[in-house]
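Q: Got a minute? One more chain.
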Amino acid sequence: MCSLRMALLCVVVAFALTLLGPCPSVCAPQGGAEPDEQPYDLDDFDMNGETDWENLDLNGENYDYEDLDQEIEVGTVAPPAPETPPPANMPPPEYEEEMTLSPRPTPPLAPVTLDFKGPGLFGPDTGLGMPTCLLCVCISGSVYCDDANLEQIPPLPKDTTHFYGRFNSIRHIKNTDFINLNKLKSIDLTGNQISGVDEDAFRPLPQLQDILLADNNLQALPELPPTLRYIDVRNNRLISNGLHTDGFKEMSLLEFLYLSDNNLDYIPVPLPESLRVLHLQNNNIQNLHVDTFCNSHDRNYMRRSLEDIRLDGNPVNINLYASSYICLPRLPIGSH
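A: Always. Here it is, folded:
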């Protein structure tokens, strides 16, 4: 047992000497005081008793670990530098200086015209530099130019079948407005200011069926194509001399003829057999002929298609012309 203690003691002493250096007992730092540390002495160890290993100071110093629990004082950050006030002549941040710039002189704008020239992507280009189908609306052969401030009819694509130019300021229809439009079936120019139409404006159209010129200033009609099925020229200033003689005779497909609110003196005869509706109210018609609707030479003649005749608002008394209605399925509406 003693041998074990001696061996352990030798190990501890050797370890302590190693930590303290080669001469802990006699060497001192040059030019300095004697070190506080005391050399280890073998006599300090109790050879016969138990060694207090828990409090053994291998470095020659006894540390009080309770001191580590003290709060470490951390230095504070240096206070920020004081803000430098802005110069007296500098505006506050929210201030926005207003600058008045002298306006540049604006060059005069060229007048906008509708001088249509040359072919375009969807139709001829307009004077505005746009094809007609950008100025108007084109949908499957139908061209809609309603309420577009037009003063003349724009060039239309060759495949146009229906043209709507209602409620514009068109005053005249030229014989070149619908040229080469072989598929055109319907023209609606209601609500313009049309007072004149060139004689050949509509005649070259081989498939034209409907023409609507109501609410204009027309006093006369040009020669119309025989293919028409629907004619509406209400609320114009038409006079009887402004209609072609026998102008409706060859229209074997005509079904609807609206001539009301004009200045007609008589019914334009002869009327085609296909006619179903004839409106002549609010004109200046004063009398009827016996053959206006019927055939005095054929007592068996019947006009079965004509079912709607309006003569009200005229100075004619229809009771005086009973023989003029004998061939009709229905009596006309008019003054009694």
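A: Confidence is low (pLDDT under 50) at residues 23-37, 44-49, 110-123, 125-129.
Q: Perfect, thanks.
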